[in-house]
Fold each of these.
Amino acid sequence: MIAIVIILVIISLLCFFFFWFITIRFLGVNKSSITFLIKICSVICIISIILIPIISSSFFAPIYKQNVSYFRLFWMWFFMLGLIFLILGLRILFLVRKMLKQMKSEGTQEKLKTKGVYVIVRHPTIFSWFVIYLGLSFIFDSLYGVILFPFLFLLLELHCVLKEKYILIKKHEKIYKSYIEKVPYRLISPPYNYLLFIIAFFVFYIGVINRAYIF
């Protein structure tokens, strides 16, 4: 199972770097083949990341001995918390999709998105996938999902930085810089960042308590 997790991590990283190589290399080139490749990279990367907490779930411990329970006696509490995160992430995705559909029908899909959930954070779609991953890691009681959580956060932050630098600022220029001043948070805004910090502390503490069992 560790080998499968490593393979999924490698696939997601390769897709991430390939995505940005194509995006930067063919910046400004409007070809259907390039757009298709970028979409394929995005889909494969998302699927690979989402599969990690599922396949490394402690539910499969009878089959794969490495899939130990991370939360153990605290799992039910984190299951409920994970369910809340999952619903929240899916809700944000729904709101973004709804807005994009409305903008497309109005013919304004090329304009900078600054309304709805974009008033809170600048990259709500990325935030939603981050929350969904966290929710699945809690629900499926995944050791590797929890371990990879901070690395995923850094990867998503890097994605947001690159997207702003190479796409959004170049496309919208002063408008986007003004938007940054109004909405200073890329992924997580207060008070949610404080809440996630508290949750991360408890998750780490549980890992310390269960370290003899986990390792």
Amino acid sequence: MPDASPTKWHLAHTTWFFETFILKQFVRNYKEFHTDFNFLFNSYYNKIGQRHARTERGMITRPSSTEVYEYRVYVDNKMKDYFKSKPTSDVLKLIELGINHEQQHQELLITDIKHALSRNPLYPAYQEYLTEKRSNTSETGWAHHPGGLVEIGYSGKEFIFDAEGPRHKVWLEPFYLAKHPVSNREYMNFIEDGGYKKAEFWLSDGWALCQKENWKAPMYWHKNDDGTWYYYTMSGLVPVKLNAPVCHVSYYEADAFARWSNARLPRESEWEIIAKSLDIEGHFADTNIFDPQPSTKDGVTQIYGDVWEWTQSSFSAYPGYQIAEGAVGEYNGKFMSGQMVLRGGSCATPQEHIRDSYRNFFPPYARWQFSGIRLAKDKFSSISSLHANDNNNKDIFFNDIISGLSSIPKHISSKYLYDSEGAQLFEKICKLEVYYPTKTEIGILKNNSAEIAKSLGPNITLIEYGSGALEKIRILLDSLIDPISLCAIDISEAQLKKSARIIRDSYPNLEVLTVAADFTKAFKMPKSQRDIKSKIVFFPGSTIGNFEPEDARTFLQSICKTVGKNGKLLIGVDLKKDYERLLKAYDDDDGITEAFNKNLLIRINQELGAGFNPNLFRHTVRFNTFKGRIEMHLESCIDQSINIGKEKFFFAAGETIHTENSYKYHIHEFIELAALSGLDKISTWTDNDNLFAVILFKVK
């Protein structure tokens, strides 16, 4: 490989750096160890003079290794003598640069040794093989950052390479960063799905190179005749560690995988702002295990060590950057073209060498470095994916399913749980003894109906979101004083018409309007024939818990616009409680919730011709303590693959499809969220056990 250099070249070159930039410059009458070494071991410093071509370094048999070590001893002794003269601070900075330069070549030495050994058909081992640790990270998961004006770049007094500064401000839009680097298991799915054969995922130059070089997998990967994957490591040729970070991929491959995953690579500013909050710990060269290892931790892990992580940022100058004078100015500045930034260090990087501001860089085709992938996503509002009137649109359904199953982790919007069969199953769930939210909320409304009606006031217009059978609204209507009109909004037009007809018959003086629409999207309110004085949105059922908190805030703001000045919101909120009770509510012994969740797979089979076997998935419920939410998942019981049209999806045993979230709140937490959305609390009503709350707000 043209990029690789022999071991003795690295040893001599790092010594040459000290001889050239320190001893020759600052030691009077310094005598070179060998006059030809300047030509042989100059890497790319044009101002120093001519140099031996990089591609020819491996062809040199002389000087011998013995002579190179003699050279290192000679220069080391001269440097020791020079230190006695007490070098100036400027010279000390050059010496520190030389030390860090040697640390860089310690890493390059490992990568080049690995490449040289891999060319041997016997695949010799450099070190003992380590069996794979069990990973605790079955899902990628995402860390959210709200964005805003932030500062990146180094601002301290310790050593940095010049390209790490100056510190400066950048604007970040809200984004997500994957908690874990992409694993070999995940990357294998990309391969098996034909990722190396589908041009639509690749940048133009990357696709051309992929075809030219006949790439079919990361560098060092080999596929046996029986279809199993092996890869060459410093422990020889071994089975691919499925849970270890994928390694030795180019920028082109990393970008293609990100596109295939419906994600992207992070910008270096996004990476740095997350990394700043984390300790610099991980799997580095100090362990003398020069292969990436699986993570055994939760949260944002392996952001340092294991693999350098490609970013989508090109290596260019920060605002205010100035190239140093002289040949040393060629160290970084001359490479600010055609290079992509990598962050975080690897299993071959000395730990003390890395910082959150450290900017490594390589051309996009480079694969020989210990380079891997961490994904990012833009924070676009996901409100529209909660409940939508496109629930029965087959094309949208297909696209959403393909997109969700292509994501990491796999997920499907909870709106697709509610087809006709799903809706019937959910009605059964609401009647279960263990499913407390429905009956508890109805009890609160009945027990406090007079007080609630008084707080709402007379002559009001009620707007119910997700009205369904309009069962709960009847409790309010029976207590209200001369309500003017009711506008019912629901996803199901058939259900809406049926319920509206019943309400009209029961309340002949009430104007009943209907909107068959997705209340999470913009919709047009029907024109009333009455004189509307006060609008009140009624949003029962704790559906607000299905929203991500940021989306909930956006949704509440939209309600403020709907009701306008003097408007109010009456909302149901499921409260935080003993998680055992929560788990029982979402995983009943009768198996109705399980049937409700698995019905999603049956629906996909029926409408999209998929091949899911619901019996090979188990309904699982988790309480995410950190996020304060119940999560419903469908967990694969075995390693399996599913076809949907021309698309094929792979599921590892234990891998899940995330189907629903239900956030739980303390009352004060939800009141604070509402306040940020433009709402002030008027009153709160709860049951005796504080399982559920009905809260009345007014627009500020």
Amino acid sequence: MAFQKKLALGLGLLFFGETDLYAAHGIAMGASPHYPADFKHFSYVNPDAPKGGVLHLASAGTFDSFNPFVIKGNPAAGLTSIHPSYLHATLMVHSYDEPMGAYGYLAEDVEVAPDNSAVTFRLRREATFHDGTPIRAEDVVWSFNTLRAKGQPLYGAYYADVAKAEALDAHTVRFTFKVTTNRELPIILGELPILSKAYFSKHPFEDANLIPPVGSGPYKITAFQPGHSVTYERVKGWWGADLPVCKGQNNFDKIIFEYYKDQTVVFEAFKKGSYDLRLENVAANWATGYNIPAVKEGKIKKLELSFENPQAMNILTFNTRKGIFADARVREALTYAYNFEWVNKTLFYGLYERLHSYFSGSPLAAVGVPQGAELALLKRYEKELPGRLFKEPFTLPVIKDKAQERASLERSKSLLQEAGFVIKNGALLDPGTQKPVVLEILLAQENIVKSLQNFIHNMEKLGIKTTLRIVDAAQYEARLGKFDFDMIYSVIPQFISPGNEQREFWSSSRADLVGARNYAGIKNPVVDALVEDIQKAPTRQDLEVAVRALDRVLLWNFYGIPLYTSPKTRIAYWNKIVPPQTFAKYGLSLDAWWSADAKGEKS
């Protein structure tokens, strides 16, 4: 069979374009897979890392579900809706050494059709669920169909171009595509978490509850206190322990997440040694909060790492479903009320940088004015785009003194007047209702409150009464799902190889879908077209052009106020745990760390 022949060849390349070659052990977009067919482990792990010990981690808030795949509930830490988790294995695993490469996990090998019309995975016969039952092709088909039909809306967007999944035999599954132009489909299908069809035939999939499900990953849930803690215990004799994609990882015997009221309490708990590692995203903490004996004595260590992925977009998102935000001039006007320079100097010790792109820190970010292929692409939509987009670089206000702040607010007032708003008795009046404009910023955490106070003060100068509303996680998700907000603080993650997930963020089809992530409610035909251009990009160069064009169109439509980012990932950890000597280019893998006291088996 051609399938067996291609496996024997062991080819390792999935290019864009018509000269695609296909791999048994792994696939990558735009280049050869970083690792050959006979690789033993990822380069950023210690293959001899000892097993044993306990990793204590922390989370703020609460949880009420072990099901991250549905809208309902607040899932426990350690569970993810896509990609591998402690509990659930996937068909393939991404490498952090390359932009878009994946290698067999549940799948022993993979075949991509020469015309990119389908992908076929062959499952490892040794792979089992935690109850000992083998993982079959029917579990893969059931997982795909169920997640797309009953899971979070993201699955519908992510896998929209898949026509069907079918089991060819007990260990072989094929996905057939609706189109042949979506080059990332074979890789993102590898991210599909595989669930037990037999287990969920007895437990309704749609339920969000605290019944520990049967999984297939390196850990299982063995203890929990509802809303307070959850314990994952390493599965002894786990089928995947010696796979190249798992070697040197999953080293702790137990991983325990403890929950705390808020981020302030979480930080204090870390300093007391209640948990072992934190990603520090509070600049004040990094600048002054670690002046404690444990740091001076070397018990707490600090790391600053740089990665090559795009920075996540931290943004105050406008709900364009609300009438006041339907006008781009209003959205732009409020952008001039945000004083990043003051926030960074006063609150962040100068440690942050302003975000000027949805793909900051990468070649995907739009810079200057459009030129070459990007200009040609945008010219197709010239009538629907603001003329400034073609003539001016996108910039955000720089406010270094009171004079610049006054000028920025005057620009705000001018734009609001152009949109028909007037200030009367100190209040900005809505031209439609003639009532004062009152806005609310909905938040789920308090950690951003201080950084918004200056913005709220400037909004008052514009005659806009703006309040901050902090609610618990359940209320936040409920209001988000009903689009019941004016503005929210959003974190939009991005990737070095953007693809189908962009539909979930920006497409019109997701704007009014409960649970989708198009928080701004964007319904823009140019954005829709560019998102599809990204899916169809025949080469890496075409992909970058389409992404930069999308970035530029999003920015010039002012769907939110870009905030700030740290150029480095900041990590603090107790010397009870040990990091690998080498870190990857494209992300942090905590699975590669181990306990300083571990003396257990090496594999």
